[in-house]
Amino acid sequence: MQTTEFGELVFNDTDLCDLIMRGTDITQLKNVTVSGTVDIAQLVDIVQDPGSISTWHGPADTAQSLEEFDRKNQLNWYMPDEYRSMDIAEHVLGLCNTQAELQRCGQELLMFQERSLFDLLRYLKYLVDTMIKHQVIWGVGRGSSVASYVLYKLGVHRVDSMYYDLDPQEFLR
Q1: I need a surface site. Which of 3, 26, 43, 122 has the fewest CB within 10 A?
Q2: Which residues, other chains included, contact 93 with Cβ-Cβ below 8 Å and sequence gap of 6+?
Q3: pLDDT digits (tens, 9 = 90+) for 73-127
Q4: Is 152 left (phi over 0), alpha (psi -120 to 50) or beta?
Q5: Which helix (H) or strand (E) holds 17?
Q6: What is d(CA 23, CA 17) in angstroms, rounded to the nearest whole number?
Q7: Single pTM value for the model
Q8: pLDDT above 90 coverage of the chain, percent
Q9: Which residues make Cβ contacts (< 8 Å) with residue 11, sequence separation at least 6?
């Protein structure tokens, strides 16, 4: 947040997100100056009526099944082109040091491919790289995801599922 020479507060996108995350009542901020791309009036309207958020993504289709919704949205991974075009299978296999690791990763990669989840793996690689770049700390691992050795090799979690003999089927049912 900055102050102009006239004492006016100027918020940027990050300031607004920070205020919302802290539970600040941003409805009081309709008349502030915002630098960046945020439309404060629209943001306030969304906070007051969370149901209006669907207008950001187009009209809600109530006849759409959960499977259709998931399939449609799985095509919208927002990541740089270098990650979007990455051969994720080659990358993961290149991280393997032993024949056993290659076999386990190969088995899991086939399971990811059967479920059309390679874009998810590419996005997770991008997310981990971004968190490392910005020195973000994340947890050791949660739930069934720690059963995936591929996710371990990508750095998503820190639990060596081969060492603990965790079944990848626990993650990719």
Answers
A1: 3
A2: 102, 105, 106, 109
A3: 777 788 899 999 999 999 999 999 999 999 999 999 999 999 989 999 999 999 9
A4: alpha
A5: helix 13-21
A6: 10
A7: 0.61
A8: 46
A9: 1, 19, 29, 32, 33, 34, 35, 40
